[in-house]
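Q: What residues go here?
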């Protein structure tokens, strides 16, 4: 069974979105990749992201200067953390994207 990975990042920001799409391309041959780019027009975006968080084995969290200040990203991470505490999934895998602040 393939693992499902959800990529969380700050959309419409460089280099965040470009890196997210490259990561998707690199992983999608061997894993199920969930990313907001795949959400169909007319779908409830927030509900779909929440559903994707709940169904993912892991959340790949792209940490950048922009994403760490995004309320939306913060809420998505909070939900993933709550689920981790009760269901031991999704695993949160942070990756820094041109972000050097500690």
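A:
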């Amino acid at each position: 069974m393939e693992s499902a990975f959800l990529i969380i990042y700050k959309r419409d920001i460089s280099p965040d979105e470009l890196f997210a799409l490259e990561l998707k391309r690199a992983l999608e041959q061997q894993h199920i990749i969930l990313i907001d780019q795949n959400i169909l027009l007319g779908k409830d975006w927030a509900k779909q992201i929440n559903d994707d968080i709940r169904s993912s084995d892991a959340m790949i969290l792209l940490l950048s200067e922009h994403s760490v200040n995004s309320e939306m990203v913060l809420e998505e991470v909070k939900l993933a953390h709550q689920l981790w505490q009760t269901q031991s999934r999704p695993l949160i895998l942070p990756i820094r994207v041109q972000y050097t602040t500690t």
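A: Context that may help when evaluating the design: The beta strands are 4-8, 32-34, 58-63, 91-96. The chain has a mean pLDDT of 91.
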